[in-house]
Design goal:
Shape: globular
Order of helices and strands: HHHHHHHHHH
Structural class: mainly alpha
Mean pLDDT: 91
Number of strands: 0
Distance between the termini: 45 Å
Radius of gyration: 19 Å
Low-confidence stretches: none
Number of helices: 10
Strand content: under 5%
């Protein structure tokens, strides 16, 4: 039997493959501890190929971080545009919070890459992108008409969710009643989704 001919990937498809592999790799070990060699192995390509596409590890991380934070920005923008966010009523910010929770539960790499980007913000280019993107996300949140206290509480709640996921809380809910209680408080209506992940 003749083997099926191998389909060559387009340059854009190969770039997408490398970015996906880099997202997984950076999610696991962060900017400083992840080499282009690790990314290449994750993608199943050569290290020189990764460098040829992106130039440097920094440029590759910026691409990964930009895409991860853009997913949050795009998700928030879509929810706000739908008109379901009503900060003037009790629980009116919940659709925005649910969108964020759904995103980070369905793709934990997004949250991990964001956290690694914040940690690596002492690298000027990463810090500049992180600050710009946080400002853009904050602008979308405040475009709902919420007041400063609501916006602060919403962002703080999102950061608590990030910490809970980074700690692997969904997988360890039964370790202590306090942890389960904190998770219930942090995830609110999405707590059952969190329990299902664990």
């Amino acid at each position: 039997m003749t083997p099926a001919p191998r389909t060559r990937l387009s340059a854009e498809d190969r770039r997408t493959l490398v970015v996906a592999a880099a997202t997984r790799a950076f999610s696991r070990s962060g900017y400083a501890a992840t080499s282009t060699d690790v990314v290449a192995k994750e993608a199943g390509v050569s290290q020189p190929y990764v460098v040829r596409i992106f130039g440097t590890k920094l440029e590759l991380f910026l691409e990964v971080f930009d895409q991860a934070t853009a997913r949050v920005l795009d998700s928030f923008t879509e929810i706000v545009a739908s008109g379901v966010v009503r900060p003037d009523v009790e629980g009116g910010m919940e659709p925005l919070g649910q969108a964020y929770t759904d995103l980070v539960l369905s793709d934990r790499d997004v949250m991990q890459v964001m956290l690694h980007g914040f940690v690596a913000a002492s690298e000027p280019a990463i810090g500049e992108l992180a600050r710009r993107r946080m400002g853009e996300i904050f602008d979308v949140i405040t475009s709902t008409g919420c007041d400063e206290d609501q916006a602060r509480d919403f962002v703080a709640h999102g950061m608590l969710i990030n910490v809970m996921l980074a700690l692997g809380v969904p997988e360890h809910l039964d370790e202590s009643p306090s942890l389960t209680s904190l998770a219930s408080c942090a995830f609110g209506p999405a707590f059952e989704d969190v329990r299902a992940v664990g």
